[in-house]
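quick one
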Amino acid sequence: MTAVGIDAIEIRTGKLRLDLPNTFAPVKGEDPGKYTKGIGIEYSSLPDVYEDIVTMGANAAKQLLDRKGLTPEDIGRIDVATESAFDNSKPVSTYIAGCLEQVYDGDFHHANKGERKFACLAGTQSIDDAYNWIRAGRNRGRAALVIATDTALYERGDPGEATQGAGAVAMLIDEDPDIVALSTEQGYGSADETDFLKPNQQFPSVDGKRSIKVYLARMREALEDYESVTGDTHPDDFVYFPFHTPYPGMVRKAALLGYRHITRGTEIEDALADDIGMQPREDDYPDREAYEDAIRAYMDELKETRRYQEWYERAIDPTVDISGQVGNWYTGSVHVARLSALSAAVENDVDLVGKRLLVGSYGSGAQAEIHSETVQDGWREAVEAVDVAPQLDARYDLDFDEYELIHDVHNHEKEADVEEFTAPEDEFVFTGWGRMNERRYEYIE
Ligand SMILES: CC(C)(COP(=O)([O-])OP(=O)([O-])OC[C@H]1O[C@@H](n2cnc3c(N)ncnc32)[C@H](O)[C@@H]1OP(=O)([O-])[O-])[C@@H](O)C(=O)NCCC(=O)NCCSC(=O)C[C@@](C)(O)CC(=O)[O-]
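structure w/ 3-hydroxy-3-methylglutaryl-coenzyme A:
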């Protein structure tokens, strides 16, 4: 069977950045350690005045099409995943296609376009849709463009303000992919939860502490479901474990729980037993509370073991590097985690061909999905071509007053007339509203 998967990736970060430990924390009266050690985000990417989910998505997509030498006729499907949409009817993919049609000969009139919603999970669901469309043989030899784009802003003063971010990830899903092949093995953990939601409002209502618990519970459920298909998972089965990364500290919690789960009943548990004992088994405890206390005590010790720390450094740390530099990109976040790991492998000259990734996606509300991917022959060249560092380094550093202004600019409830901080060049920009209140865009040379 021909492999189907991710053939190319491009990102587009918001062109501004907020330094959390040095600019945000002092004004909030917080210790910078909350950001450098706890949350793990150093900078939040934010959009300039002329940027939004459409410009970031279209700019990432254009970069991808140009690099691959593709024209609109090569694309049979454009799916946008977002939870920052500004239109309840017209999908963001039509705005993005309209942008792209300004600069290419030809058009996307015969491409199927849509918009996917399930909080941060929707990017992964869009990849699934593209995979199924190609596997079903309905693509007529064409590829699918999946764009995950979000402006992850919270109400000023909300604890979530510490985890903001803005950016887009464009991915080409095709046969014989250069980067990773997808598999049919998947696990889901899904439940009706009220932890993070936006009921007809721009900024989320969030119960932050609960959202952490729900993330962990649904991920665990998804892993168990995945293992019901594949059999037990072992830490050595996968080179990296890219998870949805609202902030690196969240992944730290998930990784520890995951490691305990996948080492249970293995030679690793036995090898650790001399130092920290065997993992608690529920049957050995009088009630659930006593069992959970024992688990917490075991995990406190597990996290300090060299074996765990070495695994974390190898398999998890590289996945959160970019996230720590950009914040939460919601639907793009797990795809940033994958790219982060692959970029680190390029930098450290690691050979990944044939190695597997275990990808854990998550969306509040809530659903987790876990699947594996196999790295393909062309991954190194394809990942080397993504200009992550130049984009991140070029961002404009906001002071706190400027941050307050730019937050107002992107607040749909406010009117703010603010000069742009950066000069647009060779990119799509937002130019204002049309007669039916549609947003309008132009390509600036
Ligand atoms: C994440 C929270 C709850 C944080 O809430 P908070 O109250 O701002 O922060 P905190 O006081 O809990 O501190 C954060 C961490 O920093 C540590 N810390 C504190 N000070 C220091 C210091 N000086 N030195 C070292 N460490 C320090 C502190 O101990 C803690 O670590 P933990 O105990 O959790 O391991 C908040 O920012 C929030 O509500 N964020 C939005 C919700 C969120 O991101 N939830 C994550 C799971 S849900 C999810 O991922 C879905 C999502 C959000 O992406 C949306 C979607 O799916 O659409």
